[in-house]
Amino acid sequence: MNERDTEHMLAELKEKENYDATDDFKSADLILINTCSVREKPVAKLFSELGIFNKKKKDGAKIGVCGCTASHLGKEIIKRAPYVSFVLGARNISKITEVLHKPKAVEIDINYDESEFAFKDFRSSKYKAYINISIGCDKSCTFCIVPKTRGDEISIPMNLIIDEANRAVSLGAKEIFLLGQNVNNYGRRFSGNHEKVNFTRLLQELSKIDGLKRIRFTSPHPFHMDDEFIEEFASNPKICKSMHMPLQSGSTKVLKDMKRGYTKEWFLNRVQKLREMVPDVSISTDIIVAFPGESDADFEDTIDVMNQANFEQVFSFKYSPRPQTEAEFFSDVIDSDTASVRLTSIQELHIKQLDKNNASKIDNTYTVYFEELYNDGFISGRSDNNTVIKVKGSEELLGEFKDVKIISIGRTVLTGEIIN
Ligand code: 5AD
Ligand code: SF4
User: Is the CB of 246 within 6 Å of ligand 1?
Assistant: First the structure.
């Protein structure tokens, strides 16, 4: 989501102010930091990086802070780092060229202006197009700051999404990547009087686009994974067979304290249905350890779900208390040593499962969409089920689909050879 926001700001700056991107911040006229506030660490990192940029930047260069931490800290950022020229919240990024000319501007209101939905067609990759389908989040997970920084959940009208996808495909993208905090809750609320459609219908309409070969999306919410959604996922050949299912915890009690809206059993039942209907599916997840009140038995439930679900990818985090969330005030805080031990257990189990899953892929054949050229004579892409695969090859493979047989296994990238 932040990458897409960055593409949009860059496009606005290019079009209206003649800016271009540079890799060398010391020569930049403008340094933009697009921030995350989901955990405490990136927020602390913001202030240390700001100090470095301020010391090393070119004379007269401006520094702007954008995104979720901008929304959440607002003018506090300028108080702590007075050399910052402007602060632009996650819901206000379309104002980038306005704040550029206003000294010490702070734009962090959550607004519902539909003009905020129309993102520029400029993209950092020619091959894949990120497309927002909704903004904000209506859930109230007790650990999460996102509803405060990105506001209420609003679905972007289907006709705008389809137009954007058509334009992306006509510019060469064969894959689109739909973005939203809860994509499978799409259609819950529009800002105007738009046709009520759900996510399944949106997927069906998008798949009709000629020249579009692959559709990915993130993040779906386990609570909204009804049969209709899973059946569309299974049967629509354009939908890539990789599903993100953020578990957060395997304990029904902790899930309740987190207000996630599902139980351990519901989650496992959805995994089972997915694995039955789509044998080649790859499932990724997010897990938070040491949420307040998480007992050893609760933690064992998370390990149990990992053992049963056999996730292809696990992103795991220690719980980080966030301001303006309910859990900030929960008692029974877990000490940091216990949190570290639990995080290590999750990561070790994940690596074990990953190595085993990868080993079973040797000699398999996958259709790879090539999108990234390495500088060592290799080129990489992803299989339908999101495995990163590289082969020896050069740029004429970019944007092409090829059948690739796996010849050796690495942890994050597999190596193959083109057979077709
Ligand atoms: N502490 C730790 N992890 C968090 N996440 C969200 N909020 C927190 C928090 N307060 C994680 C969740 C979410 C992912 C994007 O970040 O696992 O799915
Ligand atoms: Fe945060 Fe929960 Fe919304 Fe995801 S669904 S963004 S975890 S509040």
Answer: yes
